[in-house]
Structure formats: C-alpha cells, structure tokens
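Internal QA ticket QA-208
Title: Verify multi-chain structure generation after dependency bump
Assignee: T.L.

Test input:
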Amino acid sequence: MRHCTPDELMDVADGVCAADAVPHLADCAECRAQVDELRLLTTEVASVPVPEPPAQFWSQLSERVHEAVAHEPRPRRSRLDWLRTLSSFSPGMNRRAAWPALATLAAAVILAVVFVPRQLANRPNVGRDDGANGSMARAVATGSATPGDTSADAAGPGNAGVPGNDDRLVPDGAVASDAQSADASFMAFMGDLADGIDLDAAASAGLTPTGAVTDAAVTELTGDEQVELQRLIKEALAGAGV
Amino acid sequence: MAGSEPASSAEAEASVTALGTLPDADLARACLDGQTGAFDLLVERHRRVVYRVCYRFVSNHEDASDLSQEVFLRAYRALGRFRGDASLTTWLYRIATNVCLNRVSAKRLPVEPIDAASDVDTREESAPEGLLRAERAVRVREAVAQLPEKQRAALVLRVYEDMTHQEIASTLGTSVGAAKANVFHALRNLKRLLGEEAI
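Actual output:
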C-alpha cells in the first residue's frame, strides 16, 4: 500500500484538496492521523501571537528609518520605468495614446538594429553581415556590437532567457569573452525582435530615433529588461497595426 | 533624503495629506520623483507587517526592530526596481525574508522570555491560564527558531502570513514542491521539538 506523499498530506491539511479526493485516506488511519496532526500543529503555531511592542515603538521606528534614509542618495528610477507606461494600457484603450512612448521605444530598438550593424561593419574585424535575405537576426548576432561599454547586467543570470543566446553568437573558431558573449546575446535579442517588425511600416509611422534613448536601450538594459522590452514592443506594435 | 522641499510648513502638510491618498505604487513613484514624505508614508503603512514578519523570524523585539529598519532601508535603495506588478507588501515580504534569512544564518538569536513576550490581550484568561499560554508561546517560538532556515521561512510565510505555496515559492525562490515540502518538514520537526504534548 502506498501512503500519501507529503504533498498530498499538506494539500489535504491545508484544505487545498478535499480528503475524499485522495482515496487512500479513507483506507489508511495512519495517513489520516498525519493530516490531523499537521492541522493541529498549524493551529498551535498560528496561535502564538506577536507581542505588541511599546506604544512609542512605531513612531520611533519611522524616525529611525527616516534618519537612515536621509543619508542615502535618492533612489534612481529603473531604466525600465518608462516601459511601465506601456504595460499599464488596458487592451480596450486607444493605443494611439501610447504612441509617443511606443515610438521612442521602438525607435531605440530600430536604430540599434538598423544602425549598429552598419557601425560595426565599419569597424575592423568586428561584425559580419552574412547577407541572408531578411535575416536581420543573423546579421546583428555576429560579433561585438554595442557602442560603448555593455552593462555588466547583461552578462548576468537574467540574460539566460534571451532568445538566440546560443552557439551561433560566437564567431567561427573564436573563444568569446564574457563581454563579447553579452554583446552577442543582446544583439541576438535585437535581431529576433527585428524579425518581427516591419521596419518600413514603422519608419513611415514616424519612428524617429533619439540618441540618448538608443544608448540606454543598447547599453543599459539587463537580460530581464530586454525580454520585457521585446514583449512590450511586439505587443504594442501589433496593436498599433505596425 | 534629497528632494523638492515645499516652501512652507502649511504646504508641507498639504503635500503629505495629498500623498496620503495615493496607492502604494504611486507613492513609490512620488518618492522616486523626490517628494519628501512619500517614503515616510510607505513606512507608516507597512511598518507593522514588516515588523511582524521580522519578529516571526527572530522571536525577539530588539532584533525585529533592527531588521525592520534594515528592510525599509533596503527597500528605499531598491525602490527604483519596484515594478508595481506585485503589491508593495509582497515586495516587502520578499526583502524582509531575505534580510531575516541572512541575519538568522549569521547568528544565533535569543528568544524573548515569558514576561517580555506575553504582552497580549489576556483579559478573558485566568492568571494560570495566561501563564501557561505564555509559556507555551515561548516554547513554540524557541522550537520555530531551531528550524532550518528554509523551513522556518516557509512556515512563517504559510502559517503567519497566510501565503499560498506558490507565493512562498516565489518569495523564497524555490519550486512550489520545495515550498510545500519545507512547510511539511517544518511542522514535522516542530512536533519532534515540542514533544507529544504539542498536539
């Protein structure tokens, strides 16, 4: 006879799952006793209160935090904060209202995708356009790409989920450094994104790149932010009919 | 805290009053925009929850107080990364849990004695009943304090903060199965630590 697993016992004890949904319980006094025991222990532990601190404690805590924070620099808005504007639009909302922010975002990406490879092409031994018809992804995925330093974040764990982070990112026969790998991962992301965007339509819709935003998009986004950027832009462009 | 200061105390008061009506996410943004008092309001709103979580981990007021301050300080520093897609409370839970886990792994914490830990409403209890209950509470706290870190964290979040196993998993960075197993083993270990009379 197979007894209940801890998972099953916890689910029944928590009420996540009804006892009669686990047929074994009807036949096994030992498992039923375990469920009862878990419930009683939970009740026992839950009944232990947190003592109320002295009345003045709360204001003292606030004051201590206020003083500690006063010595801190003002927290910086996340680089991704501007993306939240887009994610806050409900599906039924007129996406035209999102257009200015969207244009900035998309422009940053498009500029990176379109212009960075050109810059790379002008740099010796860096970048390579394999000429594949319409394959921007491959064009931008080969070689170190970002103008200026790449954020260390881009090489962090959050980058693991970036689409296209695979062997093709390493130039033939080369051993990529961490920085090169991070650059390549980011450019692969840009390339994958570009594959989903009609660049001509986007350009005719008035997407005008701006230097500062582009720099930020290219050099500062972390892996998670890149994924979020990709999702938001694709979603918004689809909604805007681009 | 750097920020734009209102010109007079009346304006400052009006500003704080206006801020007080904002939801947490807007307050966080106001803080990032440099509005003095926005973070103070967030602290005021969440200090009880944060203190309670910290106390559950460390079982004494002094450490819970220090940890609460540290939680808010870290939250302030990281405020720019608060995305607003989860509630601020959930975000603070996560910070508090991490801060507490770091602390409890760094040192053995004292559990408050009965007289310090018994400041709860006992109006309907006789004196002996109250004493027994207080003794029992201290024993349970001591037992919880002896649990391995992940088990203790999972138990605190499940039993005291009423989180689902999914939420616990998210907070602790584990799988749902691991979160559930941690609660299960925490309870089993508590039974052993408290002895048969626990139940």
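Spot checks passed. The two ends of chain B are 51 Å apart (CA to CA).
Status: verified.
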